[in-house]
Amino acid sequence: MPTALRVAALAAMSAIVSATLSATAARAHVTLDPGEAAVGSTYRATLRLPHGCEGEPTLKVRVRIPEGVIAVKPMPKPGWTLETVTAPYAMPYDNFGTQMTEGVVEVIWTGKLLDEHYDEFVFRGKVTDSLAAESALFFPTVQECTTKVERWIEIPADGQDPDTLEFPAPGIELLPAAGDD
Question: How confident is the model over 47-62, as pLDDT tens digits?
């Protein structure tokens, strides 16, 4: 395939994925920034939580780490307790020459965020080259409040309009690895 044609095809695919993620982010109350990461790179995620649950304060934030994201390290938050859940990966992954067979699969912050306040929760991890570039990757998130729970866990099916989801999971676009044509 000629280079110009490949570039045009990748640009078209990128536009479709970006439109899907933009529509999802527009409806989502929980979002990730930045909204993209290159396959094979380290991704620093900022999970944005703009408010509580219908007037109630948020007391716990749980983020599920998708398969293919390894070596996850969350950033502690003053005033919040930090917990991680580890489990075996579905397959072994190479992390800079070290084989990893298990790691963090969930990050949990427990504290208090009043409904009228906004906050961010940060973690980083390696986006392995086992994931497909030009696709979307989702991080299901549960927001627990005083008496309510908001489950931002819905992942659009292939071709599904994200606007049809009531509680879309925050997601990112996966870009080709640096140096890939």
Answer: 999 888 889 999 999 9
Classify residue 181: in a domain, yes or no: no
Number of structural domains in the chain: 1
Residue 169 is part of a domain; what is its CATH number?
A: 2.60.40.2230
Domain ranges, residue 126: 3-175
Looking at the domain assignment, is residue 126 inside a domain?
A: yes
Regions of the chain with pLDDT less than 70: 1-28, 162, 179-181
Alpha-carbon distance 66 to 89, whole Å?
Answer: 10
- Sequence-separated (6 or more) residues with CB below 8 Å from residue 72: 65, 84, 103, 104, 107, 123, 124, 125
**Closest residue by Cα to residue 49 from 66, 38, 69, 33:** 33
Give the per-residue pLDDT at 158.
85
- Give pLDDT, residue 9: 41
